[in-house]
Amino acid sequence: MLLPHTLSLEENVLTARRTTALVITAALTLPLTTAAHPADHLDAGLPLEARVHALLGRMTLDEKIGQMTQIRVGKLRGDCDAVPGPLREDCMKPVLVDAKVGSILSGGGDFPAPDPSPKAWAEMTNAIQKYALDNNRLRIPVLYGADGVHGHSNVVTATMFPHQIGLGATWNPKLIEQAGAATGQAMRATGVFWNFAPVSDIARDTRWGRYYETYSEDPHLAGTLAAAAVRGMQTDDGRTARLAATAKHFAGYSEPKGGHDRAPAFLPVRTLQDQVLPPFTAQFRAGVKTVMINSGSVNGVPVHASKYMLTEQLRNRLGFTGVAITDWQDIRSLVTKHKAAADYPAAIAMAVNAGVDMAMEPSAAGEFTAGLRQVVRDGRVSERRVDEAVRRILRLKFELGLFERPYVDPAVANERVNGVGLDLARKAATESMVLLRNEKSTLPLAKGGKIVVTGDTADDVRRQLGGWTVDWQGVPEQGPVPEAVTVLEGIRAAAPGGTVAHAPGQAEAVAQAKDAKAVVVVLGEKPGAEGPADTEEPALTAAQQGLVDAVRATGKPVVVVLLTGRPQVLGSVAGADALLAGWLPGTEGGTAVADVLFGTANPGGKLPVSWPKRVGDQPMSYDQLPGTNGGESSKYDPAFAFGHGLSYTSFAVGAPSVPATVRADAKLKIGFTVRNTGSRAGTAVVPVYVHQPVAPLQVPDKRLVGWARVELAAGAQQAVEVEFSVEQLALTSGDVDGAGRREVPRTGYEVVVEDERAPFAVR
Hints:
Blueprint: H1 9-12, H2 15-27, H3 48-58, H4 61-67, E1 69-72, H5 89-98, E2 103-106, H6 118-134, E3 143-146, H7 164-168, H8 173-189, E4 194-195, H9 219-233, E5 246-250, H10 269-276, H11 278-285, E6 290-293, E7 297-298, E8 301-302, H12 307-317, E9 323-325, H13 330-336, H14 344-354, E10 359-360, H15 365-377, H16 383-400, H17 410-417, H18 422-432, E11 434-438, E12 451-454, H19 461-465, H20 487-494, E13 500-502, H21 506-513, E14 518-524, H22 542-552, E15 558-563, E16 578-581, H23 589-597, E17 651-653, E18 661-662, E19 667-676, E20 682-691, E21 703-712, E22 717-725, E23 731-732, E24 742-743, E25 748-753, E26 756-762
Parallel strand pairs: 1-2, 1-10, 2-3, 3-4, 5-6, 6-9, 12-13, 12-14, 14-15, 15-16, 18-26
Antiparallel strand pairs: 7-8, 11-16, 17-19, 19-22, 20-21, 20-25, 23-24, 25-26
Helix pairs in contact: 3-16, 4-16, 6-17, 8-9, 8-17, 9-11, 13-14, 14-15, 18-23, 20-23, 21-22
Catalytic activity: Hydrolysis of terminal, non-reducing beta-D-glucosyl residues with release of beta-D-glucose
GO molecular function, one term: beta-glucosidase activity
InterPro entries: Cellulose_Degrad_GH3, Fn3-like, GH, Glyco_hydro_3_C, Glyco_hydro_3_C_sf, Glyco_hydro_3_N, Glyco_hydro_3_N_sf, Ig-like_fold
């Protein structure tokens, strides 16, 4: 079971922030019936906490419970359930007036009907907001949320960026911050001020259906990039209320047994604290305003019912002060799936007491509000705990500026969403490309001569965009399809007219290859999300391998482009002349692929994950602990290692220089040079690792602590400096139970850059 532990160096970093929160809480323990002017909370000139206190003091229990409830927009329109249509007063009244619900969400596919334009989105959210405010004696605005996981991805005309796994391959926090800002701008323009992104989980098992939603298998890389996304999404451009990002899914969600979504996870405390939680800590430092809770269980305890996870870890140790929301119907799941509670009121009490602030109860708001009212009145949940949750929710709404700017301008929504960010999407997709293999310099291709393009994803927008695009499982077969440049279209635009032949089938591809200069085979996987995207065979299919084998047999150079959300075991495809991982590259994916294939762009992406050789290599990560059987089976043996990625040029990295000693509470600066030794300009991504030769616990052979990303002209050299906090080397001490402090061992270490090492000691 999970056990408590003492404070560590990492925890002390957040002490000041926690102390501030405690001071605020102490100041607000005055009786909530303290006299206040009726409009105090609407006075923007008052301090934020005074406004929160004034408003909370005027609220009834039912009004407070309503603020803790979120329901999907489908309950407000159409048939008041599943059939879309215009908003209806008889649908809105039970939710916004009777249940006093304070938050609305669009799940995948919950877009305005029949018009899905950004303007229609803005009109819909405005109408909901107006109805709520007009029928709310305290004029508390609703907060509208959606999953903008790779752009404003519910909006068919929005620009879709690469999914997180592709952005992870860029190793470029600045770019990811820009993509986050573009996403936030599009969402705010439509009245959506809460984004259920980014995913903070680490990628360890390619069988898992949400693998593509993660940035990396490495905690530091994942946390750094997620923090950048948060900063971008929460950028305030002054034109609307602000947007809240969400760190999800707290915590351990990406470690399900067997790779099945929402399956139980079994995590030693040491693994939880040293690998799973650091990406969340990075986002808390970046100011993320909300967290979404892991739908599964950890060590046999449903996380929605775990006070250890939601209070001791999230609040007390990590210092998070924002709003904690459930995932889809997860309090009800304590009854229906986990069997942890006998009935819904018991589940509500369990979750709220554990630390849940808001319930995503998509279809039955009245049942949740009635259940919470019941358990408060019978003493199973204290009203003080309700006040704590509601105070966080109200604070969030005040921080976002919703009381002052609850509406958006529909007249400008289309121009702030449609086609906005295409250049950035192209740049992001291009930087995400990882050149895995390039025998005999097959790439870049010359533009003269015939090129055959084949494969199941060469001209398929749905596969290229992946899940969470327009709908939950991806672009539906029936309905609007986003505009996007497919790989076939990108190659045709880049190559001279008449030189590109599309061969949809294997026989045609073989026939066309006979007089071709090269064959480009584009392979992908069926789009999906969550459980439906789980797979026991994360591998290229027999048909896909057969196609590549057939065109290779013609003797022509074969380039395989992989548009997948996870590394696929390659089988015979591993022998192709060139392999390019393009991930799920988004709207401009085809243009980006063509840019790399023809050398307009030099690939600079690096794998943010390990690429397995065999289906049985699960879970896999470069930082796995060493085995002791003496055989090959216990070694790290991927097809392509974490950090792998080729270029059309070459680089030389100099030996690192570091101080001889450093304090455990300090930062360490590492200097080295990077030189472009080739004939093309290119981008070098140089990971910096630390090796600990001797440790009281098992540690990975090396741990990523930072990296340099350097753009260099041919022949150019640059001195670079990478700085990292020594705190990153902290380990959870103690025996098997991991009950000790999390602290940095005072011992000797080595910085590892490429094949060079430099020793230092922590004192």
